[in-house]
Specification:
The protein has about 240 residues and is α/β, with parallel strands linked by helices. The protein has seven helices and ten strands. The chain has helices spanning about 45-50, 75-80, 100-110, 115-125, 145-155, 175-190, 200-205, and strands at about 5-15, 20-30, 35, 60-65, 65-70, 85, 160-165, 190-195, 210-215, 215-220. The strands form two sheets. Strands 6-7-8-3-9-10 form a six-stranded mixed beta sheet, sandwiched between helices. A four-stranded antiparallel beta sheet has the order 2-1-4-5, with helices on one face. α3 crosses α4. The protein is globular and about 45 Å long.
């Protein structure tokens, strides 16, 4: 199956500081599902920023959908980004819009008919248990409610790739399980899913391959292998490409 994400010897530094990501090499096949784990400050957020084109790498090659994105003209980047859904840890909702309108925004930008928007947005807000909060605005919502709005907005357009940064961090176990099943359903429809999380219980329960990053280095842990198994070399190098 074709790869939708490919990193080759990627490094990243901010300004003149040391590299925060070092020699990152891996590939993700279309329709795969991975967790991204690692301690705070390990480089998870930096890796995600490279994957959704918020930053450019310092060195190495990054390809998305079979294209080298580092050489793409700037005017072509929005077209690539429209195929990517992102759920940010800080949500980034528009405070003056209702929950409904925040979720509807990607569809309106894409020119979808309003009747279709209404049907899809209402169905999704029911799924994330916000059917009674569609007209609320983010400043009047709890953190968990805002988080679910952000998730709904990220998945409403059925992106080809979905990156979710701590999507279950502010919700109870029941809602967390419901959201994880939403991600699984989206994955079954062909979306490549990458979820960054500190919740190893969820990682173990759902049993997907893991991208583990520490000290700016990455290794891939295949499904079924214990998360705490040390790398043979003692470094965080790639064990297996997917």
């Amino acid at each position: 199956m074709a790869e939708v994400v490919r990193f080759e010897n990627v490094g990243l530094r901010y300004g003149l500081g040391p590299e925060v990501l070092q020699d990152i090499t891996f590939g993700l096949e279309a329709g795969s599902f991975h967790f991204l784990i690692g301690p705070s400050g390990a480089g998870k957020s930096s890796l995600l920023r490279l994957m959704y084109l918020a930053h450019r790498q310092t060195r190495g090659l990054i390809s998305l959908f079979g294209r080298d994105v580092s050489t793409l003209p700037r005017e072509q980047l929005p077209k690539v980004r429209r195929r990517i859904g992102v759920m940010f840890q800080d949500f980034r909702l528009l405070p003056h819009l209702t929950a409904f309108d925040n979720v509807a925004l990607p569809l309106r930008v894409a020119g979808v008919r309003e009747s279709e928007i209404k049907r899809h947005v209402e169905e999704l807000l029911v799924w994330v248990a916000l059917e009674n909060h569609m007209d609320m605005r983010p400043p009047t919502m709890s953190g968990g409610q805002q988080q679910r709005v952000a998730i709904a907005r990220a998945v409403i357009a059925r992106p080809k790739i979905l990156y979710a940064d701590e999507p279950t961090g502010n919700v109870d176990d029941r809602i967390a399980a419901r959201l994880m099943h939403l991600f699984e359903e989206l994955n079954k429809l062909g979306t490549t899913v990458i979820i960054a999380t500190h919740n190893e219980a969820i990682v173990q329960e759902f049993g997907r391959p893991v991208l583990k990053i520490d000290g700016g280095r990455l290794r891939i842990i295949p499904q079924g292998v214990p998360l705490d198994r040390p790398s043979p070399s003692g470094l965080f190098d790639v064990e297996e490409d997917f």
